[in-house]
Amino acid sequence: ETGLHAIEKNEWFEAMDKLITDEKLRKRLGKAAQKDVIQNYSMEKNAKMWVEAYEDIVQKFKKERGPKAYL
Fold first, then answer.
1. Which of 3, 10, 56, 59 sits at a 20 to 30 Å CA gap from 28?
2. Using an 8 Å Cβ cutoff, are 66 and 58 in contact?
3. CA 42, 44, 48, 50 torsion: positive or negative?
4. Is residue 51 within 8 Å of residue 17, measured between CB atoms?
5. Which of 22, 25, 43, 21 is nearest to 33 (CA)?
6. How far apart are CA 61 and CA 57, in angstroms?
7. What is the pTM of this model?
8. Is 50 within 8 Å of 56 (Cβ atoms)?
């Protein structure tokens, strides 16, 4: 669990109250969220995906506008 779920206004108030009043919960959620980000969203983990996405964009652009259009 990396956060609290809230949709309605009263649920947001309840979630914020829990975070304000429960230090252990705040620390647990914070550590879990940090771990999730490091494992799933780090630059190292996603670098290949970004390179491939940019390469796909360049190839599409070249196809549509010609190989010298981006120079």
1. 10
2. no
3. positive
4. no
5. 25
6. 6
7. 0.60
8. no
| Residue 33: other Cβ atoms inside 10 A | 13
pLDDT by 10s per residue, the chain, length 71: 899 999 999 999 999 999 999 999 999 999 999 999 988 888 887 898 899 999 999 889 888 887 776 65
Which string of DSSP letters, residue by residue, matches the chain? --S----SHHHHHHHHHHHHH-HHHHHHHHHHHHHHHHHHH-HHHHHHHHHHHHHHHHHHHHHHH-TTTT-
